[in-house]
Amino acid sequence: MASSLLRSLVNRSRSRSSSVGAALSTRNYSLVSNQISNHTAKWMQDTSKKSPMELINEIPPVKVEGRIVACEGDTDPALGHPIEFICLDLKEPAVCKYCGLRYVQAHHH
């Protein structure tokens, strides 16, 4: 009984996956690009406000004593991002890929 039930479930999933694959290959993604451009336009229409990148660039680089910094984006883990360990061996500020904060070694500057 269990093996016949398992066979019927496997056969049903195979028939569904082939029809889903055909539907995905013919899907029209033009609506997605319209949504993305509308979302981007929202940030571009009011030039009196600063963009998120402009706001984060106003924060001066954080000076750190060691060679490696662990960036979490915020002191509250619920508001931050996944931890990223950033190497500070270069003289230029290192940038966190999640939040854009910049870090430099204290003795370089």
TrEMBL record:
InterPro entries assigned: Znf_CHCC
Matches recorded under Pfam families: zf-CHCC (PF10276)
Gene Ontology CC annotation, any one: mitochondrion
Domain of life, source organism: Eukaryota
Domain Zinc finger CHCC-type: 66-103
Region (Disordered) residue spans: 1-22
One GO-annotated biological process of the protein: mitochondrial electron transport, NADH to ubiquinone
Protein name: Zinc finger CHCC-type domain-containing protein
